[in-house]
Write a structure and sequence with these properties.
Blueprint lengths: L9 H7 L2 H4 L4 H15 L4 H23 L2 H22 L3 H21 L7 E6 L5 H6 L3 E3 H6 L17 E6 L11
Length: 186
Amino acid sequence: MGKKYSLDTLQKFLDKYKCFEELGFNEFHINVYYLEWQGNKGNIIFNDFLWSLFNKAIDLNGDYFSSTGDEYGFYFNNYLIYSNMARFRSEEGANKKVINKFIKLAQDASYQRDVCNLNENLEYQVVIISGGCCGYCDSLNNTKYDLDYYNRKPRLDVTKCTRETGCNCCTSIIVKRDKNGRIMRK
């Protein structure tokens, strides 16, 4: 793993990983966290500090949910955090198994975020959207599952993806339609 970032290039990191900005971090806050972290750890590896920022983001998001009860915002933020963590692990040179753990957490958060906004009077399906990453993922492209079935047994298994930098597929919740294309109501 190359040491791509340092305190001098912190802004480059923040520009690339927007989840911190979305969660209200600014350079001042991050410098304060750095000084606190350095004081607790002594001689540090800067990438370890960057990982501590991701953990701080998870903590702050938990605090956000506790104070607001905003389930949609909580899952949206988790999606941002975990997808950025996957990207950072990839940048660090992690193997796909490790990267896919973060991708799975991001996918789960995205799914939960979408479930928060469903109209209870409509029927829904989950559709898998392949990112073109491998044959396994392509074989699932545009496959649809009833929402209740997908909730019990998710069908997108990122561990089966063979893409070296991790799976880039996603799911989307869509309104279920009948054979004539009309929206199905409960």
